[in-house]
Write a structure and sequence with these properties.
The chain has helices at residues 3-20, 29-49, 54-62, 65-84, 111-134. It is an all-alpha fold and 135 residues long. 29% of the residues are buried.
């Protein structure tokens, strides 16, 4: 089995899970920092020890992606708090913070909310592609 697929699914799965549940009461920033740092330690440990096979390196790089996402999420949250005095609204499909459908209107969603939401998507996927290209 190609181990790089495990890294890709892990990076996308964990990052999107954190993205969509970031405002849940049980998802505290302290827990997310703890898990992301734990994943980072596993990823760095694997990258340092398993440097002969590209597929394994990509798998271990996938463990580092959630921390990159989380750092940018916190940065965007701080920026939104400075701009709007609130956390940004996740403007993505299936988000519980917006209405979606044919006639959905979201007047509470600002342009910065949309930019932060799409920026996080680009960061998650872009970080993974950078890892795929460089490893």
């Amino acid at each position: 089995m190609d181990k790089s697929i495990i890294g890709i699914f892990f990076a996308l799965g964990i990052s999107f899970f954190i993205l969509y549940s970031r405002k849940a009461k049980w998802m505290t920033p302290k827990k997310v920092w703890f898990f992301c740092l734990g994943f980072l330690i596993v990823g760095i440990f694997g990258l340092l020890l398993k440097n002969e096979l590209r597929n394994e390196r990509l798998m271990y790089f996938g463990f580092c992606v959630p921390l990159v996402y989380w750092i940018f999420d916190r940065l965007f949250k701080k920026l939104s708090e400075k701009i709007h005095n609130r956390d940004f609204i996740l403007f993505l499909r299936n988000s519980s913070e917006i209405d979606y459908g044919f006639s959905a209107e979201n007047p509470h969603v600002k342009t910065s909310d949309k930019l932060f939401s799409f920026g996080l998507l680009i960061i998650i996927i872009g970080t993974l592609f950078i890892g795929m290209k460089t490893l």
